[in-house]
Specification:
heterodimer; A: about 500 residues; alpha/beta; Rossmann fold; GMP Synthetase, Chain A, domain 3; 3 domains; nine-stranded mixed β-sheet; four-stranded parallel β-sheet; about 30% helix; globular; B: about 100 residues; mainly beta; four-stranded antiparallel β-sheet
């Protein structure tokens, strides 16, 4: 059980099929295999213990992922926006390492101790050189070896490295994808960055299904639509902020004019109901899937599939309609339980913490060990509930829950109510320290263009729908909320700005 | 006969077939290809063997093969001429249950 098995099978079973498209570069699975072998030899002959990449998506990415697996070293995709002390802190955890980066950054990064820095173009030229030579076809088959170290986004604290072993990612692929199940013309548009688990999962599942990856390194709604039309994209994954921008751009055009786009999946954050409803109208022929997963679970563990979307949007039953904002049902290979603060399992529709069990679940952090419990379940620190039919609803991070006078208040619930107000386009609710109550509920709100709302009006709006203890004591009106580049709300930043008043 | 573990890689002793164990019973089980017991992928195959009669239907890359009890599942990672069998019966191809693509 090693990632290399996936690539070896792809090279064996469909070696002439194009696997990756990046700008004008097109690589077949056979070419990716050979290039990975050469890059692996380069890695093996160095002192490096990790192979890191600090770069946008490029053909070097899949080659490096498999070169690391081939050489038996962990692959570490780093956030290319990091600089200075933040970057040094992460690099310090993985040296000695080979690091691939954009050509312009080679000289400045070469000053960091313990790094062999290689420019992207050099790396590709070395891996793709044409001479025939025999590749060393030996690689480890130990399923317990580390495949990927992925520094999690750290919206609630400093980044820590999630450990994903070969058995986790390969289990996920074998449980969710059939080999060579994609049509020769299928193409997946990948616009998430390499350091996002969805970016890593996309490479593994594309290689195994035979669906070529088309890379879009710098997302804009315009470039996404242009590339989707040019490459006749059939499948795509976006985070909620990306879909919001695409919907915004298409507004007024009536239809998206993407006749080849069969499947559009989204995940990586909370999708506002208004966005998904508009998207369903703009893409009437497209199958939508909402995927929920964590870095620590090797990507997707629960999916709201196309049928669920259609049933929800066309239903008059509020219970069914509500499922449009759920993440669907767990994969067949995954078990989900909702447990209370004492670890006791809760009944349907009761809210608690999401626990998950399955072979793809790693639940481990570098230097901190595994958080998986003796019974095999991993506490995700996400709050949520399961309805009577097993649909999973996510309510945000447990650590974000506001405790006011002993009452646990989920910010997501209040945010949902605020988003239903006609003047509100975005909302963040956080708890701030309070002498009397321990914490008080405070909101930052973004109004729609040309719309206005007053604090008193929004307070009344929440009070009418939730109880008064959940009504924010004060509101601030901001032009926009702070998100990280993969669409996660930065609650730390919201809290700090509200504290500063 | 051997106790198999999920993730174990094996190969045919008489053809090009290579496999990975996806699921296996707790107890010992025999798995053969082309009529001869599978051997460890890194190991040496005993030379000179031939595909037995009635065991030459071939294996297909990427297909999952299961026994009748459903507790043995073998993924073909490289195709060959022999057919996979266990407990005296040929393994059959497991039907795919496609999930919506999510990444």
């Amino acid at each position: 059980m090693n990632l290399m098995m996936l690539l070896e099978m792809a090279a064996e079973g469909m070696g002439d099929r194009v696997g990756v498209v990046s700008g004008d570069t097109r690589l077949t699975y056979g070419e990716i295999f050979e290039a990975s072998g050469r890059a692996a030899a380069r890695l093996r002959s160095s002192d490096a213990e990790h192979l890191a990449i600090l770069d946008i998506s490029s053909p070097a990415l899949p080659i490096a992922v498999f070169a690391a697996a081939w050489a038996g070293k962990p692959f570490v995709p780093l956030n290319y926006r990091l600089t200075g002390a933040e970057l040094e802190a992460l690099v310090g955890q993985i040296t000695p390492a080979q690091l691939i980066t954009e050509n312009e950054r080679v000289d400045s990064l070469a000053e960091l101790a313990g790094l062999e820095v290689i420019g992207r173009d050099d790396y590709l030229a070395g891996a793709r050189r044409a001479e025939a030579e025999s590749l060393d076809r030996e690689w480890s088959m130990d399923p317990d070896e580390i495949a990927i170290l992925l520094f999690t986004s750290g919206t609630t604290g400093p980044p820590k490295a999630a450990v994903i072993r070969h058995k986790h990612l390969v289990s996920y692929i074998l449980m969710s994808v059939e080999f060579m199940s994609a049509d020769e013309n299928d193409a997946a548009l990948v616009c998430v960055p390499p350091y996002h688990i969805a970016g890593m999962a996309a490479i593994a599942s594309s290689v195994y299904s035979g669906r070529r990856i088309v890379q879009l390194p710098n997302f804009t709604a315009e470039s996404w639509l242009e590339l989707a039309r040019k490459e006749e994209i059939t499948n795509a994954f976006v985070v909620p902020t990306m879909l919001a921008r695409i919907v915004e751009l298409l507004e007024g055009q009536g239809s998206a004019d993407l006749p080849h786009l069969r499947a559009l999946s989204y995940g990586g954050g909370k999708m506002p109901q208004s966005i998904i409803e508009r998207a369903l109208e703009l893409f009437p022929e497209t199958n939508f899937a909402n995927a929920y997963g964590l870095t620590e679970t090797s990507s997707t563990i629960s999916i709201l599939g196309p049928e669920d979307h259609r049933a929800a949007i066309s239903s008059d039953d509020s219970r069914v309609r509500r499922r449009l904002v759920s993440v669907g049902q767990p994969l067949p290979s995954i078990e989900v339980e909702i447990r209370d603060g004492d670890g006791q399992a809760l009944a349907a529709n009761e809210r608690g913490e999401i626990y998950v069990r399955g072979e793809q679940v790693s639940g481990e952090y570098l230097g901190k060990g595994s958080l998986v419990l003796e019974d095999g379940f991993f506490p995700t620190r996400d709050g949520g509930s399961l309805d009577e039919d097993g649909y999973l609803f996510i309510e945000g991070r447990i650590d974000d829950i506001i405790v006011r006078g002993g009452e646990n208040i989920s910010p997501g619930e209040i945010e949902d109510v605020l988003l239903e107000h006609e003047a509100v386009s975005d909302a963040a609710v956080v708890g701030l320290p309070d002498e009397q109550w321990g914490e008080k509920v405070v909101a930052a709100v973004v109004c729609k263009p040309d719309a206005r709302a007053t604090e008193a009006e929004l307070q009344q709006w929440v009070k009418d729908r939730l109880r008064s203890s959940r009504t924010p004591e004060s509101f601030e009106f901001w032009p926009e909320l702070p998100y990280n580049e993969t669409g996660k709300l930065l609650r730390r930043t919201v809290r700090a700005r509200l504290m500063a008043g | 006969m051997a106790v198999l573990k999920a993730g174990t890689r094996l190969k045919s002793a008489v053809c090009n077939t290579e496999v990975m164990v996806v699921a296996a019973p707790k107890d010992e089980v025999d798995v053969s290809c082309g009529g001869a017991p599978l051997v460890a992928l890194g190991g040496e195959a005993p030379g000179g063997g031939e595909i037995a009669e009635g065991a030459g239907e071939g294996t297909q890359i990427g297909k999952r093969y299961i026994n009748e009890a459903g507790d043995l599942e073998i993924l073909c990672t490289k195709p060959g001429e022999g057919s996979l069998a266990s407990g005296g019966a040929l393994l059959t191809i497991k039907g795919a249950k496609p999930l919506p693509s999510s990444d």
